[in-house]
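Let's practice the habit of predicting before peeking. Look at the sequence and jot down your guess about where helices and strands might fall. Then scroll down.
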Amino acid sequence: MITDFRHSFLAFFFIFFLGSSYSARCQNNENNFVEYLYNSNQYKHVIDYLQHLQLSQKSLISPDSANFLIGKSFYHLQEHTHSNQYLSKVSGSLNNYNESRFLININSIYNEDFKRGYEALNNLKVEDSVVANLKYFELSGLALLNRDIAAFDKYDQNITQEYYYFSNERASLQNVAEELRNKKLKSPWVAGIATAIIPGAGKFYAGKRGQGIYSFVISMFLALQVWESYRIDGIESPRFIIYGSLFSLFHAGNIWSSALTVKNYNKEYNEAVNYRIKMDLHIPIRSFFN
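Done guessing? Here is the structure:
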């Protein structure tokens, strides 16, 4: 009886060991295959393979790891919205959780969703001083994207140590902050009013001197024709009506165009500044986590 029990126990243990060993080998095979695809930059294949495993519900790769790898693969493909959909599913138990929050921030700033980027980092609890400083650096950049100079100063002062992987970018953000402090964007109203008083003045104000000279010359030519028509033919003459209408239309369009030029100038300036900030925020993340 005891002998039979021992034989049964040994048989059960042997079968269990073989099953566990087989499961471990399968998991290693899956991990190795995914790692091979990822390291080969075959991100679409990583996504397709892991999504297939998730649908089949037979994957031995943990859901957190799968969601992280799918999300990071979408990040490399610059599909930021899809990347965040998967990275946001990663739980705090995964070793790569911190990285997932930083990547959510990067994806969000490229999607112009600065609020989501802020929430991903602000809610991140970190004990490591290096990661904490990186967090404050990223938050300082988000503050600049929101044109909140006071918040930038607060987060920048929380950075307690310089690190090689973001020292240059931190200096760049500080330069941007100083530039924004001193920068006064041009007013479309001022451009429009200036043009109404002196044709072309609004274009000069917007920095478009060539357009300003052109507008002034055309306006003066039409104005002289209007005056000449009035002086010779009178106010009711067809010539006066035609040139008067042309001058009025051109001058009104010039006023609108001057205001629009300033508005576009401000937009282009802000886009250029935001591009610099985004690059400064992105480079350290790639350096630190890769």
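How did you do? Confidence is low (pLDDT under 50) at residues 5-27.
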